[in-house]
Amino acid sequence: MNKFCQRNCIIHETILSYLPQQNGIAERAIAIIFEMVRYMLHSAGLSLRYWGKAFLYATHIQSLLLTTGLDSMVLFKA
Fold it and tell me: Domain residues of the chain, as ranges?
């Protein structure tokens, strides 16, 4: 895994298990994605059958949004 991360310029950081302090950012990001999926399906009047496609689109939209930590750069470009 370390070789794969180094080869692909990925910073691999480990965390301690079961510490909610370290999971807060990830949990909030996941909650936002699920809210986006529910809203997209509801507003389009689609059944839950399209949940997977809506999830893919929601994550794609998230990657195109500006983030404050990247100085007006989208996550996809970073």
Answer: 17-74
**Residue 1: CB atoms within 10 Å:** 7
Q: Report, in this order, helix, strand and coil percent for the chain, each rounded to 5.
A: 65, 5, 30
Size of the chain in residues: 78
Structure-token pair, residue 68 = 């404050």
Of all residues in the chain, what percent carry a pLDDT higher than 90?
38
Using DSSP's 3-state secondary structure scheme, residue 73 falls into strand
pTM exceeds 0.85 for this model: no
The mean pLDDT of 8-19, rounded to a whole number, is 79
> 60 and 33 in contact (C-beta within 8 Å)?
no
Dist CA 10 CA 32 (whole Å): 24
